Predict the structure.
Amino acid sequence: MGGIAIIGLQWGDEGKGKITDYFANFVDCVVRYQGGNNAGHTVVVNGKKYKFHLMPSGVLQRKKVVIAHGVVVNPEVLLNEIEMLEGNGFKVDLMLSDRAHVIMPYHILLDGAEEKFRGKKIGTTKRGIGPCYADKIARHGIRVCELIDESLLKEKIETIMPVKERILSAYGMKMDKEFFGRYVEYGKKLKKYVGNTISFLNSIIDEKKVLFEGAQGTLLDIDYGTYPYTTSSNPTIGGIFTGAGVSPKKIEKVIGVAKAYTTRVGEGPMPTEEKGKIGNYLAEKGGEYGTTTGRKRRCGWIDLVALKYACKINGVDEIALTKLDVLDGLEEVKICIAYEYEGKSLQEFPSSIKVLENCKPIYESLPGWNGSAGKKRYEDLPLNAKKYIEFIEDKLNTPVKIISTGAGREETILL
Ligand code: GDP
Ligand code: IMO
Ligand code: MG
């Protein structure tokens, strides 16, 4: 049967949660493989809004969900999400990897301090994501298998705290030790969910359908994104293999999720950003306020230079184009087909931030439309909306197979 990957192609918030929830109906298991509670995935079912930071969005379709070892886990946030779901009548069938790294209170403090003292802000979510991944690589991390074993946890904290205390004190900060007891309690409550997710996923992937739900997006990827204005993990396809422990041979389809325009939250270059009327129009109509931090998202036209790059890296088979309805009512819609840099046309997404900052979008303009909102059949879309989609497919050489015309689960066109 095999795996399906759902991957963000822009700077996050493409609507991965909604698309994951939609496809979760057709699979047996949904897996988060990277990121942490910097993610905010919104799913709207029967008018009710659910926001997930750690829990795979497939949970609302009452499917088995897995948080694999590539995820960094804030245990308090996870327990709150389990409680919220159970309070809403959902039985949570979760397996949490014993190898996943745990976000500790000092990671959150350090995320804030690094943002404060860095010459230029990244605009992180301040959830401790970067410091937790840094500790994993530096071999200072604490994993779930240690969280659930009080004596191991004690030993780990005693090993690491002398280092952390010195770093915190350099920032003028101190930590009280009260958190040990709290973390022991988290471990006790989470223990029943903990397992070897690598063995589990490999035991089912040939017989069952498994969906891998990306967090963040390709342009926030630590390797492929607009570094250093990125997150600290690999939201791209490779993150599945290192973060969930399944072989590339098991992925049978890659669905790339892209908004019909572009948004970005936090700092860093965004060539098609519209700071004036259009940007505000998209932000207000699209409700572009972050699910995690509530920050207003920066908005602009769709960027096919960036999307082409994202399709290539991830080997995207088909695109899910979301929020088409937000473009309803505009007289014209613009599509960035190349960048102008130092008087020349640039077709490739550049590696250098300095270059990207100085790229000006080259646009093609198409006539706008009205009335795509809520449509459930391709035939019912306005002609100009269809032309917009066909233009994107043609330039990206990748079919658009899913079109989202509203936040609700049913406001979806599957081709
Ligand atoms: P994610 O992080 O990729 O899961 O995306 P977010 O949930 O952070 O942001 C997407 C926002 O757009 C959420 O509030 C969704 O409910 C909403 N949304 C998703 N698809 C559509 C759509 O097609 N139209 C509209 N109007 N809203 C959508
Ligand atoms: P979802 O899964 C949008 C951004 C932050 C910041 C940068 C680094 O909802 O699409 P971090 O806290 O990860 O160190 O912040 O990455 N960022 C996101 N932007 N959607 C997200 O997740 C994001 N997760 C992180 O705003 O610019
Ligand atoms: Mg989001």
